[in-house]
Every structure is written in structure tokens, then in C-alpha cells.
């Protein structure tokens, strides 16, 4: 009895001592939230507090003039009306106009390409032909600023014997996770496993994991195997982008981190080839903010889950004598695109303050627990003819 199990590879992020440090990228384009606040390049350490003018024309801004209390209140009331904000009291006792710039258009968009899936066909191949069953699925979430996707490929192949070559079975599983931050898209994790069995020949298998294109783990799969389960994490990469929050240019650094859990086991011999895996991976975004000018305060609040996915996958070729039983199974456990990122900037205007707030990401999350594939069949291979 000869069985071959197929796994779809691990998804996620890893941190090992030999792995290169996380890379930093920068998006040079500046996001202008409102047309009234175009991007302005200020000198480093420019003092914006008590120097940036208010909007009301009833009392022109002049930092060298004393404004009477009734004038101050009229200015604050006028600024509140113009900005559409709300008057509150700041922690230091000054009046504060709290202005919401709302959500940027991309904050809730998930304009990604539709899911693509190719399932194994149910047709029967000629008795002396190579038998191949393939499964592919890819799906993405998010938008031009933040996003994530996964890709899964599985293939099982049985090659009938010929006058010069014994029958052969092959199985390959390949899976990857892709993450995006501020338009930078990177394959953060890829996992691959393969088995090759042949009567009277080599019976070999291997598994490998890659993070940011660099191999971080591998194992030979032969005989009965059960490598130590993997549970690693790391920061993949960081991307910086500048947003105009009110009149303040805030540079946001989004750091993508994540991890991987992977368990594989199986058996490989001239008569039995078996491989199973339960991979899982995730990637999250944490953000920090910086400015090169002096303002009352600024910052970024919240965090994002880009993707948290497990893809337990099973594939089998059972080749007793003259026929082939095959099975492919895969399930999806997914949580993706959830969380909020909100920026704020506060400026002091002599005797009051303004605070602008804008949301750059706001997702309620997508959860799926699906059986993606559960197919099986019987194929007469005609191998007894040789």
C-alpha cells in the first residue's frame, strides 16, 4: 500500500538569529487629507505653536497683540464655526477646538481583486497517461494603503511505469502570505514541501520556510518524520509615509510583525509516502508617529490585524497495484483586516488650541471558517500492463 500526503505550506513570520534585520522603506508621496491644508515643507524644528495663524478674519492673528477676554471668546467661537469642530477644555485648562477630519476614502475600502480558485478536475485520464490533480487558491484583502493576501498551491502527480522507469509519485505544496503597508507589498512568508517516491529508486522529501525571501528553516523528509514544531515571530519590515493632519505633516511609521506555527509529520518509503501539515501565520501593524516641527502634541492611536490564517491541508495518493485512490482536502480559518489607525495633531493658538483627528484605517474584520476543498477519486492507471 502506497500513500502520499500533500501539505500546503506554512504562512507567516519568523525570527531567528541568522535572519537579516527588518528592512525600512519610505513612501515619498504625501497624503493630503483636505485641500485647505496642502503639504508644506517646514524648516527642521520650526515652532508652529503660537505662530500658525487662525482662520477667522474678524480679528487678524498677531502674536504680539493682547486680545481681551471677550475678543478671545469671539475668536474661539468663530474658529469653531469655521472648522466645524467642538469646544472642549484641554488638560491644561485652555479651550480646545476638537476637529474631526473623518475617514480618508481608503480607510474602509477593500478594493482588491476577486478570489481566484482552480479545483481539481473530475475527469479520468487515459490508462497510460500521467495523472495530475492541482488545486490553487488566492485571495486578497485591503486597499492601496494596507492589505494582505494568501496563496495556496497543491499538486499531486502519479507517473505510470514504462519499460525503462518504475512508476513514480510526486506531491508539492506551496503557500505564501503577502502583506502591504503604505503601498509597499512584500511576500513576508513562504512555505514549501515536496515528496518524490519511486519504486526501486530515490524516495526523498523536503520542507522549507522562507521569510522575506530568505530561507530560515528546512528539513529532509524521509522514512518516518516529525520535525520539531515551529513557533517563531519577528518584525518583517517597516514603511514610513507622511500625512497632512490639519496643517501638520506627520510621518507615520508602520511596522509589520508576525509569526508562524507549523507542524509536519509523515512517512516515506518505497511503498508508503505520507505528508501532513497544519500551518498558520499572521501579520499585524503597529504604528508610530514623528514630526520635524514643534507642536503642542501629535500621535497615532490603534493597531491593525492584517491577516491571521491557518490552512490545514491534506493530500493523499494511495497506489496499491493497478489503481490509484486520491484525496485532496483543505480548510481555511481566517481573521483579516480588523482594527483602526487614527492620527492626531494639536497646535496652540496663543490662548486656545486646535486638535485635528483623521482615521486612515478602520475595518471591522473578516472572519471565515470554511472547508475549501474535499475531493477524492479512483483512477485506473493501467500500470499492470508493464
Topology, element by element:
Elements: E1 3-5, E2 23-32, E3 46-47, H1 69-83, E4 86-89, E5 95-103, E6 116-118, E7 131-142, E8 146-159, E9 168-181, E10 184-198, E11 204-211, E12 214-220, E13 223-225, E14 230-245, E15 248-262, E16 264-268, E17 273-277, E18 280-290, E19 293-294, E20 297-310, E21 313-318, E22 323-349, E23 352-380
Parallel strand pairs: 2-14, 3-19, 5-23
Antiparallel strand pairs: 1-21, 4-5, 6-7, 7-8, 8-9, 9-10, 10-11, 11-12, 13-16, 14-15, 15-18, 16-17, 17-21, 18-20, 20-22, 21-22, 22-23
Would you give an account of this structure?
This protein has one domain (3-385). Helix content is 4%, strand content 61%. Strands 1, 2, 4, 5, 13, 14, 15, 16, 17, 18, 20, 21, 22 and 23 form a 14-stranded mixed sheet that branches. The protein has one helix at residues 69-83; strands spanning 3-5, 23-32, 46-47, 86-89, 95-103, 116-118, 131-142, 146-159, 168-181, 184-198, 204-211, 214-220, 223-225, 230-245, 248-262, 264-268, 273-277, 280-290, 293-294, 297-310, 313-318, 323-349, 352-380. It is mainly β and 386 residues long. The model is unreliable at 1-18 (pLDDT under 50). The chain is elongated and about 100 Å long.
Amino acid at each position: 500500500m502506497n500513500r502520499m500526503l500533500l501539505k500546503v505550506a506554512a504562512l507567516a513570520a519568523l525570527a531567528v538569529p541568522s535572519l537579516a534585520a527588518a528592512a525600512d522603506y519610505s513612501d515619498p508621496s504625501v497624503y493630503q487629507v483636505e485641500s485647505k491644508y496642502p503639504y508644506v515643507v517646514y524648516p527642521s524644528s520650526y515652532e508652529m505653536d503660537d505662530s500658525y495663524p487662525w482662520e477667522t478674519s474678524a480679528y487678524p492673528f498677531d502674536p504680539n497683540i493682547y486680545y481681551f477676554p471677550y475678543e478671545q471668546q469671539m475668536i474661539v467661537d468663530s474658529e469653531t464655526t469655521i472648522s466645524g469642530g467642538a469646544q472642549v477644555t484641554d488638560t491644561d485648562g485652555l479651550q480646545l477646538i476638537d476637529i474631526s477630519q473623518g475617514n480618508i476614502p481608503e480607510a474602509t475600502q477593500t478594493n482588491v481583486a476577486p478570489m481566484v480558485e482552480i479545483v481539481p478536475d473530475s475527469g479520468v485520464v487515459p490508462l497510460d497517461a500521467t495523472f495530475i490533480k492541482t488545486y490553487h487558491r488566492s485571495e486578497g484583502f485591503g486597499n492601496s494603503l494596507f492589505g494582505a493576501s494568501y496563496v495556496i498551491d497543491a499538486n499531486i502527480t502519479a507517473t505510470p511505469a514504462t519499460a525503462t522507469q518504475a512508476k513514480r509519485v510526486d506531491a508539492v505544496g506551496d503557500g505564501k502570505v503577502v502583506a502591504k503597508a503604505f503601498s509597499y507589498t512584500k511576500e513576508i512568508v513562504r512555505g514549501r514541501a515536496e515528496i518524490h517516491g519511486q519504486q526501486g529508486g530515490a524516495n526523498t522529501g523536503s520542507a522549507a520556510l522562507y521569510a522575506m525571501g530568505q530561507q530560515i528553516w528546512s528539513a529532509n523528509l524521509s522514512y518516518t518524520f516529525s520535525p520539531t514544531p515551529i513557533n517563531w515571530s519577528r518584525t518583517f519590515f517597516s514603511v514610513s509615509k507622511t500625512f497632512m493632519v490639519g496643517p501638520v505633516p506627520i510621518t507615520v511609521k508602520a511596522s509589520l510583525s508576525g509569526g508562524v506555527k507549523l507542524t509536519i509529520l509523515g512517512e516515506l518509503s518505497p511503498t508508503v509516502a505520507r505528508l501532513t501539515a497544519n500551518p498558520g501565520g499572521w501579520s499585524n501593524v503597529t504604528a508610530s508617529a514623528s514630526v520635524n516641527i514643534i507642536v503642542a502634541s501629535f500621535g497615532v492611536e490603534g493597531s491593525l490585524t492584517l491577516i491571521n490564517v491557518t490552512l490545514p491541508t491534506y493530500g493523499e495518493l494511495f497506489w496499491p497495484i493497478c489503481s490509484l485512490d486520491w484525496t485532496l482536502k483543505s480548510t481555511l480559518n481566517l481573521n483579516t483586516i480588523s482594527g483602526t489607525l487614527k492620527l492626531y495633531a494639536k497646535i496652540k493658538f496663543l490662548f486656545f488650541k486646535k486638535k485635528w483627528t483623521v482615521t486612515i484605517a478602520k475595518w471591522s474584520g473578516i472572519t471565515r471558517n470554511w472547508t475549501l476543498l474535499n475531493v477524492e477519486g479512483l483512477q485506473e492507471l493501467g500500470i499492470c500492463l508493464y
